[in-house]
Amino acid sequence: MSNPQLSRVGSRFGPYQLMRLLGRGGMGEVYEAEDTRKHRVVALKLISGQFSGNPVFRARLQREADAAGRLTEPHVVPIHDYGEIDGQFYVEMRLIDGISLRNMLLRQGPMPPARAVAILSQVASALDAAHAAGVTHRDVKPENILITGNDFAYLVDFGIARAATDPGLTQTGTAVGTYNYMAPERFSSDEVTHSADIYSLACVLAECLTGSPPLSDGQHGAIDRLAPDAAAAAAQRVAAWKNSAGARPGDRQRHGEKPERALSERR
User: Biased-composition ranges for Basic and acidic residues (predicted)?
Assistant: First the structure.
């Protein structure tokens, strides 16, 4: 397989013409690609060899992609197809014309509270629909939130992080995700439920308001670690989400919809 640090732009992957590298992470690379069979441009995630070559991962990815593909919530990026070509797994998704929340924060800095609430309420809606369908995301972070020109938000990568959480897929059962946004139970043998996604979303909100991701040591809620000079208006929104970032899963809101309502009341 090719060097993962080298872009494959301009090459073919089965029926896909790889046109532009959109992103690269621990799970693989995402390309803007043309599906030459259906004559449409899509987002194509190529799963890294570490995972593609593992039969446990392949079985789990198929199961999770099937479940995620049935989600019809407008803030969930639809999965068109998935499969394996020459030993490498891929997931084909709708291409979104927007930028990641990560890049937005890098360019613009902290958001006004009302805008942060408006954007993340949409993500909360996506999570609520997913949780109701029995789907957990497990990697909610700014990189996986896409924003269009009118501040319409999408949550991407449903099913992919969850498919990689089997202990046999990582060294000594290391959790798959991004540490700054991972609930404490992700680092232990405790059961991981939908509340882990809500914890992660609360951490993203904190970063939107202050410009820095909160740190969690497993004993204090992430929101308790906010920068002390955060604006008073931001603190009011954070207070509404404190129970979404509790260190213990039972202390958190169960679904994304509930913190969404709590925040909306404070606009």
Answer: 249-267
